[in-house]
Q: What sequence folds into this?
């Protein structure tokens, strides 16, 4: 210590005695720098990783697209199923109408809850079906796969007796085929467990209901 | 104080010889940074010095630019990433109410006149409302279907208001609005759940868009605030979360007169 003190007053001396003493400090500084840099990098890496991995599906994600579009798809099915429940002639139609309406309204609630958890609005800013991996889009009327036109829905509302059953079966088989297709789409595009679980369940139950409706269709014709 | 200790013993003599103390006499952290720099060049200069004792030039070259650059780069990167994360989190966590409040010209009756919209009673027949078109108050037991329905004739306030209670955004326009403008408005509403639109007699602006407790009057069908209002408030503005927009009254058959349905089934 004292050496350095004198060394600083007398440069030539410092040149000789300095290195052994002073070289420890730059090395320590270098280690400190490296350690701090490593710590900072770790922090940066961690922040980035949390941002990327732990992140909820975003505005244009297939999950958000599915939750929004399937909610709309379901809403129409609820309306059709409620007509079947109220006006259907065959008790089996009224029963399946009740089942479908409550199931699908409940599922709408679950999908809306996802959007809330993901901090997303219920209404998307992108066109419907844009998230689908195989490029299936809405038709000329802006309808998603399987959806009925407004005229068809009005027809169902105004039908009487066995006509209700017939129109309902026809529209709902088509509707369900479209729904299964969309569920397939999100299963291809997403591995979020809650989304995959719901999409699998929709696929299975709607396929099963398609078979039931087909049986009812054959029985009545 | 403890901060300056490591370099202290070495530096104290420097102070004595050069009288540099005033600079180091600033706050402790500053003192460390300030005194650390002049010390290092001398040392590294000393490290290389033994062979060529031309100290003056080496003093200024000796700054540890490598570590400094690394620190700055990592620091900037870290700040950018953390800053972005914070910004994204803030943006993402903004509530729909905050987003609504940012729409220029929006009137929030939930704040300015909560009493005018506090009554949610179901009532038959014509009802008088404080706002035009209404944004809250008693209404018909039947709602107007709001699955992106574009009605081409006037509908009853009493039905539409029930839709607002369910979370719908109702877009109304003066009946004399040019067809091209009506089509622009329809493109915002059509095929979107929890939205409906209809012409409306006696509007005090060409276009008025409303949700339960909220209203925005506009002059121009191209105004981006129309879509913003619809997107932010549809479903969010519901005072009965989880209720549907499906079924209900889906015709314009009775015009502005509310229609009493037998079963609440639609038709």
A:
């Amino acid at each position: 210590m004292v050496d350095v003190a004198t060394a600083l007053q007398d440069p030539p001396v410092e040149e000789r005695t300095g290195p052994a003493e002073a070289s420890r400090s730059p090395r320590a500084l270098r280690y400190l720098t490296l350690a701090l840099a490593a710590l900072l990098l770790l922090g940066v890496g961690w922040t980035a990783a949390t941002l990327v991995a732990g992140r909820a599906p975003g505005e244009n994600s297939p999950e958000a697209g599915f939750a929004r579009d399937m909610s709309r798809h379901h809403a129409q099915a609820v309306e059709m199923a409620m007509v079947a429940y109220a006006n259907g002639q065959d008790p089996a139609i009224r029963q399946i109408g009740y089942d479908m309406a409550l199931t699908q309204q409940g599922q709408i609630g679950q999908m809306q809850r996802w959007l809330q958890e993901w901090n997303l609005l219920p209404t998307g800013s992108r066109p419907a079906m844009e998230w689908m991996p195989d490029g299936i889009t809405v038709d000329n009327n802006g309808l998603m796969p399987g959806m009925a036109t407004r005229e068809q829905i009005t027809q169902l509302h105004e039908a009487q007796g066995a006509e209700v059953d017939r129109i309902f079966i026809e529209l709902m088989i088509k509707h369900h085929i479209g729904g299964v297709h969309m569920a397939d789409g999100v299963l291809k595009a997403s591995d979020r467990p809650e989304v995959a679980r719901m999409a699998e369940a929709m696929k299975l139950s709607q396929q099963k209901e398609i078979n039931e409706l087909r049986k009812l269709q054959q029985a009545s014709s | 104080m403890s901060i300056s200790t490591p370099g202290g013993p070495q530096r104290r003599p420097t102070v004595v010889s050069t009288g540099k103390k005033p600079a180091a006499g600033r706050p402790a952290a500053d003192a460390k940074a300030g005194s650390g720099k002049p010390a290092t060049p001398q040392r590294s200069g000393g490290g290389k010095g033994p062979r060529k004792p031309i100290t003056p030039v080496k003093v200024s070259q000796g700054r540890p630019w490598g570590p400094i650059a690394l620190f700055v780069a990592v620091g900037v990167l870290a700040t950018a990433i953390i800053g972005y994360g914070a910004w994204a989190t803030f943006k993402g966590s903004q509530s729909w109410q905050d987003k609504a409040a940012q729409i220029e010209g929006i009137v929030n009756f939930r704040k300015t006149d909560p009493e005018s919209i506090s009554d949610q009673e179901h009532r038959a027949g014509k009802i008088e409302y404080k706002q035009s078109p209404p944004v809250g108050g008693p209404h018909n037991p039947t709602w107007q279907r709001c699955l992106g329905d574009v009605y081409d004739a006037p509908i009853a306030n009493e039905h539409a208001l029930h839709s607002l209670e369910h979370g719908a955004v109702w877009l109304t326009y003066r009946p004399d609005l040019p067809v091209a403008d009506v089509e622009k408005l329809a493109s915002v509403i059509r095929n979107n759940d929890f939205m409906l639109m209809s012409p409306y007699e006696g509007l005090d602006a060409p276009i008025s868009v409303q949700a339960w407790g909220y209203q925005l009057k506009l002059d121009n069908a191209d105004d981006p605030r129309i879509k913003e209002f619809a997107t932010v408030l549809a479903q969010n503005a519901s005072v009965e979360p989880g209720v549907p927009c499906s079924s209900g009254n889906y015709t314009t058959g009775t015009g502005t007169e509310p229609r009493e349905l037998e079963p609440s089934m639609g038709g």
In short: DSSP finds eight helices and no strands in chain A. Chain A has two domains: 2-53, 62-220. The first helix of chain A runs from residue 2 to 9.
